Amino acid sequence: MLRRYIDITSGEFLMHEYNPNFIGLGLIKPSEPLNTLVYNCGKNQKVTIDEIEYDFPEKSILPLIVNQNFNFENPEQLIAWQFNREFYCILDHDSEVGCVGFLFYGIHHPMFIKLNNEEDEEIKYLTKRFQSEWEANDRFQGEMLRTLLKHLIIKITRTAKSQTESYLSFKEDKLDIVRIFSVLVELNYKKEQGLKFYADNLNKSPKTLSNIFSLLKQQTPLNIIHNRIILEAKRYLNYTDKTAKEIAFELGFEDVSNFSRFFKRNTGINISNFKVDYLEKE
What we know:
Layout: E1 2-6, E2 12-17, E3 24-25, E4 35-40, E5 45-49, E6 52-56, E7 60-64, E8 69-72, E9 78-83, H1 94-97, E10 113-114, H2 117-133, H3 141-162, H4 165-169, H5 172-188, H6 195-201, H7 206-215, H8 221-239, H9 244-250, H10 256-267, H11 271-281
Antiparallel strand pairs: 1-2, 2-9, 3-8, 4-7, 4-9, 5-6, 5-8, 7-10
Helix pairs in contact: 2-3, 5-8, 9-10
């Protein structure tokens, strides 16, 4: 079943309940910019995200973001919530939910958040609250759905942080630097490839920023920037008909040769060979 709510501001909220047609088309269908939370209330299954297969354990939550292409082995065993920024902007409400740069647009993805029995029951309870709210067809419905979504995000964020080594080892204000950096990368990676831009926005020197990431046992900031560019390049190559030249322009490179060298240096494979490998898999 698929339920959809749309408000007068073009805010859109969807809930999939055991929907066999649940899939994410990412750049294949970019007109649907939706963040997604998926609850596996069935058995372990496989999920393919941007052409990579993962195990999706039972009693777990998987956050997925705009532009990701995904499909599930058994979508009929899942419950999922999807929303656009007009319905609930996680960036504007980050002080309330603290999920931006962690659950969504963070550097540790995909993130499979395992639920213990108590947490699983809480998600099931929230699911029932959503289900009952769909029956209330009045002017308060949208606000109630937003409130329940906020509750769901906070619950999942708390659970995920309790399972993340860095959040158990360091103060959250330190880790907020990583979160803010991740958001800055997401917003600017197509035009800012150097570390200085991001360090300046965080009021740090590039060296200090790199030292902080090392202390927190994270990838280097520059690697994170480069990995985000490569990820988007692979999405364009896999799911669109754009040429290497068009992709280079889209990702902020001055010319295709610079882009080709960057791609080869970070993946170990030429762009043309990468595209051929993808077509052969199809």
